[in-house]
Amino acid sequence: MGVIDESGILAIATRMQRLSEQMRKDGLLIYKAHGIDFEPKWFPVIYTLYFRPVLSVVELANEIGYSHPSTITLLKELEKLKLIKSGKDKADERKRLVQLTEKGKALIEQMKPVWKIMIAAATQLTDTQNNLMKAIEEVEKQMEIQSFYQRAKVIMAANEARN
Predict the structure, then answer these.
(1) How much is the pTM?
(2) HSE of 125 in the Cβ direction (CA atoms, 13 Å)?
(3) Which of 62, 66, 97, 140 is the most exposed place for a label (fewest CB within 10 A)?
(4) Nearest 5 degrees, angle CA 78-CA 104-CA 19?
């Protein structure tokens, strides 16, 4: 057990990131094993556009929960690969609308059976005594009520009041 593992809750973000990176690496291997050239980091954009065929960049960023610059970076990569296309909104020229290309739609059809396998494998991993998906949902709800930073500020203020 390393220092990070021993640090407990203090390193929760680091441990979640480590877990996320491992799942992404394995996801890449799963796609490659099925002959699919796909980076797991593209998943939120591709998957969202599959269900919401036309979105503005801002709507997409909000939908996937990424910052605008992070979303733009992903969109540039996907556009270069011709998996998505974008154009100006005719109603509002300031907006850029994004959608899947035929190549992007075909890729999704190729990935659907692989997603079923990934769901089954991820379910096996997370179906533990403390079900990870349920725990994540609970923490996300708690953060909607009050963020990590806001909670820390309250604790700091309480500590200062005691001193």
Answers:
(1) 0.84
(2) 12
(3) 140
(4) 60
